[in-house]
Amino acid sequence: MKRNRYVNARRNADWTIDQDWPTYTAEEQDRWRRLFARQEKLLPGRACEAFLEAKSRLGLSSVGIPDLMDLSEKLSALTGWRVAPVAGLIPDDAFFDHLANRRFPAGVFIRPEEELDYLEEPDVFHDVFGHVPLLADPVYAQFLEAYGRGGRRALERGQLHNLARLYWYTVEFGLMKSPRGLRIFGAGIMSSPAETIFALEDASPNRVGFDLERIMRTKYLIDDFQQTYFVIESFDQLLHDCYQDFGALYDRLRSGPEFEPDELAKNDRIIAKGDFHYFRAKGRGEGKCAGFPSQP
Ligand code: HBI
Ligand code: FE
After folding, report:
1. Which pLDDT score, from 0 to 100, does residue 1 have?
2. Known catalytic residue: 53?
3. Pocket test for ligand 1, best of 4, 68, 86, 90 (most atoms within 8 A of CB)
4. Nearest C-alpha to atom 2 of ligand 1 is from which residue?
5. Which residue range(s) make up the domain with 67?
6. Which residue of 15, 95, 108, 132 sits with most ligand 1 atoms within 8 Å of its CB, as the best mutation to test the pocket?
C-alpha cells in the first residue's frame, strides 16, 4: 500500500509496531521538515506556553521525523509517558489501555504529499508534533492518563460517545486562556496551519468557556473546522473538573438536550459569539441559540 506502508507491518498484541526509523525516505524526512517549519512560524503567540516550552525541551526540531525510542527516553524522564508506535487508528480498548499506562499511541507513517493539509488518519506529524509535547506537562500528563482509565469505564458502560466529545473538544481542539489572550492547546489545531489561524482569529466560530456537561452534550464535525471551540482556564481546571467518576454525569446525560456543533446554549459563558460567515458560505450551519427565543 502506497498510502501507509505500515499497514502490513508485524504488530504486537497491544497494536504497537516497529517504527523502523532508518527506512524513512529523504522525501518523507523533507515532508516533516516542511510541515514543522510551517507550524514553527505560526505558533509563537498562538500555542500555549507549556507546548512551546516542551517542544524545545523534547528536542523536536525541523531536522526530521523523531526516533520514538529517543523521544520516549526524554519524555519518560519528565513525566513517565512514552510514545508507542502504531500503524494508524487502533481499537478503542487498546487505545485507552495505552493512555491509562502513560503510553501515547502515535501513528508512524507520514501523510502523502497530496494530503499535506488534510488527512483522515492520524500520522506522525499530527501525533508527535501535535500531541506529544503537552505530555511533558505534569498536569496535562495526569489528565490524559485519567482519560485513559475513564475510557475503559465508558466502554464498559456504553458511554463512549459522550466521553469522545470531551477528547474532541479539549485534547484535539481545545483553546486556553492566557494573560495575553487565547492560546491553542488542542493537537488537531496544533498540527494544522489553517485551523491555527481560524480557531484563534476568524470571526466565524463560537468560543465558549469550558463546561464538562455541556461538552458531553455537544456533537462535533470531523471534516471541517470546528463551529464551536471550548476554552479552558488552565490544565489545573481541566484536570480538576474531569478527575471524578463520570457515572452520575452519564446518568444525567441520558436525558436533556443534545447540542448541534453550531449551537449556543442558555448557560454558556460566551467568550465570542461566532458570525458563522465561513460556514454559512458553505451551507453548513448558521449559529443557532438553543433555549433563546428566536430573533425575527
Ligand atoms: N487510535 N491511533 C489512534 N489514535 C487515536 O486518537 C485514537 C485511536 N483509536 C481510538 C480513538 N482514538 C478514540 O477511542 C478516541 O478518540 C475517543
Ligand atoms: Fe489526535
Report:
1. 42
2. no
3. 90
4. 89
5. 21-281
6. 95
- CATH number for the domain spanning 185: value is 1.10.800.10
Residue of 131, 145, 192, 195 with catalytic role: 131
pTM of the model: 0.95
Which pLDDT belongs to residue 291? 54
Q: What's residue 292's pLDDT?
A: 53
> Does any domain span residue 223?
yes
Angle at 94 between CA 222 and CA 139, to 5 degrees: 75
Query: Residue 99: inside a domain, yes or no?
Result: yes
pLDDT in tens, 159-170: 999 999 999 999
Total of domains in the chain? 1
CA atoms within 13 A on the CB side of 279: 24
Residue from 28, 72, 98, 172 carrying the catalytic annotation: 172
Alpha carbons within 13 angstroms on the beta-carbon side of residue 157 total: 20
CB proximity list for 102: less than 8 A, separation 6 or greater: 79, 80, 81, 82, 141, 145
Pocket of ligand 1 (CB under 6 A): 86, 89-90, 92, 95, 105, 107, 122, 164, 167
In a domain, 14, yes or no: no
